[in-house]
Amino acid sequence: NRPVVAVVGRPNVGKSTIFNKFAGKRISIVEDTPGVTRDRIFAEVEWLNKYFTLIDTGGIEPESEDIILSQMRNQAMLAMDMAHVILFVVDGKAGMTAADKEISQLLRKTKKPVILVVNKIDNQNQYDNIYDFYELGLGTPFAISGANSMGLGDLLDEIVENF
Ligand code: GDP
Ligand code: MG
User: Fold this and answer.
1) Dihedral, CA atoms, 56, 60, 66, 70, nearest 10 degrees?
2) How far is the CA of 144 from the centre of ligand 2 (A)?
3) Of 100, 88, 104, 91, nearest to 137 (Cα)?
4) Number of domains into which the chain is organized
5) Does 41 sit in the ligand 1 pocket, CB within 6 Å?
6) Predicted confidence (pLDDT) per residue in 18-73, tens digit
7) Residues 6+ apart with CB under 8 A from 46
8) Strand order in 4-8's β-sheet?
9) Residue 85 predicted with pLDDT over 70
């Protein structure tokens, strides 16, 4: 059985963008409307001869903070149950939010490997945005730009290291 890697995080942080880059095709639909993912979900990914199943959590994502938080809790639960490795994606442009903090506490309790991914670091000037996220207590953040495909190779290396 292949290891399962779940992508979790707030709406609009870029989960589906990353999923699609790893999946190599547009399986999960990213729309122009922020945060909208129509179909989730599973893709088989190969990296350096290692194979894993990637899950894009999200679905149709809600607007209200309360509903976002409860849905993130559900995502976190799903990830806790199914995943061997959890990719927790945060938005390096928007910065840290209360929801990020709350979810990171849940994820830490899983005792599973959690990789903190700071997305939307599109260029060197934005690199300083990653430092706030050390506060989440999930180790060294991986700075990536899903949109520009920057940092994805290093992230895949880290994922397969954890199998
Ligand atoms: P999800 O809701 O977490 O699945 O996020 P999406 O993948 O749907 O992306 C939400 C929005 O963020 C879309 O408009 C994407 O084009 C944009 N986005 C995703 N990755 C990046 C990135 O690396 N840089 C920037 N600037 N925008 C991104
Ligand atoms: Mg999505």
Assistant:
1) -40
2) 17
3) 104
4) 1
5) no
6) 998 998 754 545 555 555 544 447 888 999 999 999 988 876 567 788 888 888 78
7) none
8) 42-47, 50-56, 4-8, 85-91, 114-119, 142-143
9) yes
Q: What is the CATH number of the domain that holds 98?
A: 3.40.50.300
Q: Which pLDDT value is given to residue 104?
A: 93
Domain holding 87, by residue range, is 4-161
pLDDT in tens, 123-149: 999 999 999 999 999 999 999 999 999
Please indicate whether residue 20, judged by its CB atom, sits closer than 6 Å to ligand 1.
no
Report the candidate in 105, 19, 88 with the shortest Cα–Cα distance to residue 59. Answer: 19
Q: Is 71 touching ligand 1 by the criterion CB < 6 Å?
A: no
The per-residue pLDDT for 40 is: 47
Tell me how far apart the alpha carbons of residues 116 and 114 are, in angstroms, rounded to a whole number.
6
